[in-house]
Automatic annotation (TrEMBL):
InterPro entries: Znf_C3HC4_RING-type, Znf_RING, Znf_RING/FYVE/PHD, Znf_RING_CS. The keyword Zinc applies. Keywords: Metal-binding, Zinc, Zinc-finger. The keyword Zinc applies. It comes from the Eukaryota. Residues 20-85 form the RING-type domain. Transmembrane segments: none annotated. This is RING-type domain-containing protein. It comes from Apiospora rasikravindrae.
Length: 251
């Protein structure tokens, strides 16, 4: 029997440490989890996005959301379950630049083939992908104001604003803000923001509804008030006067 020509991946022997548990191929652009497991970066990203629909991180109040996925920032702060050992970690994952260089040197042909396949995958999922990404930042600002004449001097009064910002507006149907004991306000055009004046802590609930035809790819998604399947996500926000800041949430 004459030997069959080898497939590209079989030309070189991969050490088990150079293998990705998830995709069962040569590690590509490796990252390491706090529990010490090494995976391809794209495998970790796919897994994290699949299991963690709304990674949340704190952003500056005036930071505008961008539509580019901040993959490296997400990975550095990632809180997720390790896909290999199922340990929960919250300290992010590290990229392994040296390991990457090592893999390139050890398996030049196979690594080049991996890179090529990866860039084709990314190109293919760019334009006509069914999953689109949107970054949402929610937060509040508040400032103390002079109490009206005659009121108790010890009581502090704050004016506040609560906002939701998005990396794109074309798929947002509207944002409904509910402030306890004050009812709801729906804003259908940017800026999605409400203002108030209060003496004590305020709880704001914001629900973000997508336009008809879109659903949130998130386990926190609920049906919209008009019955649209998974078209709404809810954010609950405690506005305390010593807390000045914003937080971002990506879905
Ligand atoms: Zn992999
Ligand atoms: Zn692990």
């Amino acid at each position: 029997m004459s030997p069959q020509p080898l497939e590209e991946d079989e030309v070189e022997y991969f050490h088990p440490n150079d293998f990705c548990f998830l995709c069962q191929r040569l590690l590509y652009d490796p990252i390491v989890t706090p529990c010490g497991h090494m995976l391809c970066k794209p495998c970790m990203v796919d897994n994290a996005l699949g299991s963690l629909p709304s990674p949340v991180w704190v952003v500056a109040v005036h930071e505008d959301p961008t539509n580019t996925l901040p993959v490296d920032r997400l990975l550095r702060r990632l809180s997720a379950r390790c896909p290999v050992c199922c340990n929960q970690f919250k300290d992010g994952v590290r990229t392994c630049v040296e390991k990457c260089a090592d893999l390139r040197a050890k398996y030049p042909a196979a690594y080049a083939a991996r890179a090529d396949a990866q860039s084709r995958t990314e190109a293919g999922s760019g334009g006509d992908s069914e999953v689109e990404r949107i970054t949402m930042c929610v937060g509040n600002e508040n400032w103390e104001i002079q109490p009206p004449p005659g009121s108790s001097k010890t009581e502090k009064i704050h004016e506040w604003s609560f906002f939701a910002k998005f990396s794109r507006h074309d798929i947002i149907e509207g944002v409904t803000f509910a402030v306890l004991e004050r009812g709801t306000t729906t804003v259908r055009q940017p800026p999605y923001q409400i203002y108030g004046r209060d003496r004590s802590t305020v709880i704001v609930m914001a629900s973000v509804t997508l336009k008809d035809g879109y659903i949130w790819e998130s386990e926190h998604a609920v049906d919209s008030l008009d019955g649209g399947y998974k078209r709404m996500v809810l954010v609950e926000w405690l506005m305390a006067w010593d807390d000045f800041g914003g937080k971002g949430c990506m879905g």
